[in-house]
Amino acid sequence: MRTIGIVSEYNPFHSGHRYMLGEIRKHFGPDCAIVCAMSGNWVQRGDAAIADKWTRAAMALRGGADLVLDLPPLWAVSSAETFARGGVSLLKATGLVDTLCFGSEAGRLEPLEQVAEVLESPQWQSSLGEWLSKGLSFPAARQRAAEALLGDAAACLTYPNNNLGVEYLRALRDLDSSMIPWTISRVGAAHDDRQDHTGSHVSASFLRAQILQGNDTPLTPWLDPEDEVALRADPAALTHCTRGVLARLRAMEEAEFLALPDSGEGLGRKLYQAVREADSLDQVYTLTKSKRYTHARIRRMVLWAFLGLKEADRPPLPPYLRVLGFSPRGQKLLKKMKTTATLPVIVKPAHAGKLAPDLRRLFDLEARCTDLYDLCRASFGETPGKKEYTQSPVHP
């Protein structure tokens, strides 16, 4: 039986994701198993996931996944390179996943592999430094450096899913993984498109916007009805906790901003100044934004500051496998992982108590992040805390 791995956010799980899982089973056979390494309660764009990780894991299982593993915030709220490396390492550590599948605008591996190889070369590193010295943001400098070596072939990096695909390929190589990469063409709306594309798949951004704005138009063409009810019942967003975020950031000293990841090039100092003038999160982002700093990088820094995370908190790779949910087929995978997994497997919260002290510290840190996530729920005050220590995996 083939076991296919996916690194995902599912924020939220929608028809495009369901299509992808269906295509995997068409290609690899209906009996293949699908393992997802999914961002937890915090996501790469520097925000709270619209639903908690157990709710989103249940959606993925109803949509065709078999086993959902937690990608902790230290890797989930990071650059594409760190996000990909964290997710791929979790899938590798199961000892079962033989194929890494991802969606891309290119729809084929050749151009992505060509770029991935160039990004490992000394020539690219040298060219990257030259462009960064001219004040460009990292993504822009990365693009220019790749173009200098590849010409038009580097154009694939302008698309977000291609960019992630390149990082998955680099992670496979860097981690010496035997997983075989396989990509599927992304269909429907673009990654951050907030428009309604009738008759096609919409983006997760569009669905989040509809739910958070309180638009009561049914979203059933793209969401499972049961999933839509769950999402509308208790949507989360960092803006629901604006005063709490600003209070945390205004209490920080400048040196604390300088200790945040990606705080170089004067960004930490500029963010320190912005939070003392801004009265909203959007204003914080706007006051800090410049040609050198991308919006995503600023949002992630704000979130890391709110969560009290530091670069020193993050080990090179995730050190355990936290199970969020499983299907009957996934339960069989878990039994096999007792002998194949190369990391401790946490199925029940009580298993965390058996972790080595350094691993337990990381688990406790994620528990704190989950408690802060509860402040961002629309139903704050109605949801009991301490879920990391009480919530068992879902198996709908």
Write the layout of secondary structure elements.
Elements lengths: L2 E6 L6 H14 L4 E7 L2 E2 L3 E2 L4 H10 L4 E5 L1 H4 L3 H14 L5 E6 L5 H9 L3 H11 L5 H13 L9 H15 L5 E6 L18 H9 L12 H9 L8 H9 L3 H5 L8 H8 L6 H8 L6 H13 L13 E6 L1 H13 L4 E2 L10 H17 L23
Parallel strand pairs: 1-2, 1-6, 2-5, 6-7, 8-9
Antiparallel strand pairs: 3-4, 5-8
Helix pairs in contact: 4-8, 5-8, 6-7, 11-15, 13-14
Q: Explain this structure to me?
A:
This protein is of the alpha/beta class and 396 residues long. The chain has helices at 15-28, 53-62, 73-76, 80-93, 110-118, 122-132, 138-150, 160-174, 204-212, 225-233, 242-250, 254-258, 267-274, 281-288, 295-307, 328-340, 357-373, and strands at residues 3-8, 33-39, 42-43, 47-48, 67-71, 99-104, 180-185, 321-326, 345-346. The strands form 2 sheets. Strands 7-6-1-2-5-8-9 form a 7-stranded mixed sheet, sandwiched between helices. It has a two-stranded antiparallel ribbon with strand order 3-4. Strand 3 and strand 4 form a beta hairpin. The radius of gyration is 20 Å and the shape is globular. The mean pLDDT is 91.
Structural shape: globular
Q: Give the helices and strands as they follow along the chain.
A: EHEEEHEHHEHHHHEHHHHHHHEHEH
Total of DSSP H or I helical runs spanning 4+ residues: 17
Mean pLDDT: 91
Structural class: alpha/beta
According to DSSP, the number of beta strands is: 9
Strand numbers in spatial order across the main sheet: 7-6-1-2-5-8-9
Helix content: 40-55%
Biggest beta-sheet profile: 7 strands, mixed
Q: What does the radius of gyration come to?
A: 20 Å
Termini separation (Å)? 23 Å
Low-confidence stretches: none
Q: Approximately what portion of the residues adopt beta-strand conformation?
A: 5-15%
